[in-house]
Amino acid sequence: MKIYNHLLMTMGAALMLVSCGQQNQNSTGALSSSAAEKVYVAPGEQDEFYAFLSGGYSGNLTVYGLPSGRMFKEIPVFSQFPTSGYGYSEETKPMLNTSHGFVPWDDAHHPDISQTNGELDGRWIFINGNNTPRIARINLSTFETEEIIEVPNSAGNHSSSFITENTEYVVAGTRFSVPIPQRDMPINEYKSNFKGSLSFISVDPEHGHMDLKFQLLMPGFNYDLSHPGRGKSHGWFFFTTYNTEEAHTLQEVNASQNDKDFIAAVNWKKIEEYVNNGGGTKMPANYAHNLYDEGTHTATTTMYKEVLTVDPLKVPGAVYFLPTPKSPHGCDVDPTGQYIIGNGKLSADLTVHSFDKMIAAIEGEKFDGEAYGIPILKFEDVLAGQVKSGGLGPLHTEFDGNGNAYTTFFISSEVVKWKLGTWEVIDRKPTYYSVGHLMIPGGNSRKPFGKYVVAMNKITKDRYLPTGPEMEHSAQIYDISGDKMELIYDFPTHGEPHYAAGIPAEILAPKSQKIYRLDENEHPYVVKTPTDAKVVRDGNEVHIYMSTIRSHFTPDNIEGVKVGDKVYFHITNHEQDFDVPHGFAMIGQNTSELLVMPGQTKTSLWEPKQVGVWPFYCTDFCSALHQEMQGYVRVSPANSDVELKWSLGE
Ligand code: K7E
Ligand code: CUA
């Protein structure tokens, strides 16, 4: 307890330092002109890497270039996005369905790019929604969210979404333990009654489609972060835990009592075999699976009613606990798969476990008791080494593929570079300020590209011109090609990036899709040629089959719509040129505009409430005559007999 109090005081002091002590510490000019050259990507030239930064509470994913720090795109994932109409258009609304109904927001933390043989293959990127537990898959040729699966029996889906080295599974662990199945019970009966679920979601190797294969029901700890084994440890997955005390109140104090929490080592191959042989128990659960179809440009939702659960005690030899000091946060595995790093956030030292020693300890039954029947391995028998870092508040570690590791320290605001195997600290550089995750392209794979590290900071303060009380979070790029790290650039981010994933541009850029082919468009309301444009009434629903091309809508004038109608504008963009979208906006609609890409069909719902003649227009400056790209809808009283008609050029 004494140590704990001391740590709290140190944390407090360090935080104050961040708050008021570090202003302009960098004013000596960290950037030499050679540093400027390192990040300078001349006009018309392109970056070497893509970086995908999670958007945190924006619910989205942002795409940047490295080393320029230029933002290329925000990909909507868990949040409605008026810029494109995602989550507002009829086609994409189902993407945000859950067992709790339509949930148009989430908190996205950890993107991870698909892998083949432990190397980035650039097909998909996965990301977790924390708050209403979900995992999303984004297609990396269209940069569109294609699939979102809800994770039942989970709460605070945080140790997610990390993938195994052949993208067999995307794995999602619960941060908060809950009653499973959910039920009405007193909160103070948490201990030994709540459970933590670790979900293994299989990924179809061809289409990427996700399927919740099984959930491991673990003791009621908090499962904070995770990473897959790779190489020799492929087949295992590692999760940090905290609150092994199973406290249900004032966790700040009560979840910091144990000197050591655990890293849970899960042999998923063993459990997979058990499940494939009919093992596990089906349990009722409600969850949504939302899938976007590329042909119809439309998402559909399937609701599931049960899930396969596995009791770890039924699969002997599948789960072990590795004691790890002081409420570990990050859980990282080096490129060889030998070292598992757990960073106790209340500790100064980093704990490194050895996979080989773990296997030997399991075989030698070097146990130090058990927790709910799960064997606890002896700390000394699995420990590879400890890094005496001299920093405070270690969080996350990445690797450069040259035998070095880089760990962030939140409290002491720095990145520390150290050597795997000797555990010696090689270099340390300040961050501005209070760094969370860091990212090296491919840093979570067998083959990192150790040229840059991007630090994602929680506090911005004086790094940019002030923008009122709210500042965007700041990221920083360090050149790590030499022995010493060199800070070469700061750039603002969007939302709150937690983790990120980077990949060489040469893997993604050549396969980036340029248009959707109109002849492959299978949308039920597609208009393949302007002569097919029409307006159809079905009761009080009016379906407008509309096409766009520079610079008009077909049709552009519509009459016979009535107050109380539900008017669906189904807009097909007839352009087949790269980067020529058209937009659509209707006065008074209770949704956003739409941005329709070439060859695509999107639908906007409008429910007119007043009679009149109401305009719509194209929102994207698509041509010299973009301002002429407009039309009218005549709205008559509910009982009117004005006939439905539509026209262009009449
Ligand atoms: Cu450390 Cu959500 Cu990965 Cu933030 S988490 S920093
Ligand atoms: Cu189409 Cu502006």
From TrEMBL:
Keyword flag Cell inner membrane: no
Keyword Oxidoreductase among record annotations: yes
Compartments it resides in: Cell envelope
EC number(s) from the headed UniProt entry: 1.7.2.4
Superkingdom of origin organism: Bacteria
InterPro entries in the record: Copper_CuA, Cupredoxin, N2O_reductase_N, Nitrous_oxide_Rdtase_Sec-dep, Nos_propeller, NosZ/Cyto_c_oxidase_sub2, WD40/YVTN_repeat-like_dom_sf
SUPFAM superfamilies per UniProt: Cupredoxins (SSF49503), Nitrous oxide reductase, N-terminal domain (SSF50974)
UniProt GO molecular function: nitrous-oxide reductase activity
UniProt name for this protein: Sec-dependent nitrous-oxide reductase
Lineage per the UniProt record: Bacteria, Pseudomonadati, Bacteroidota, Flavobacteriia, Flavobacteriales
Gene name of the encoded protein: nosZ
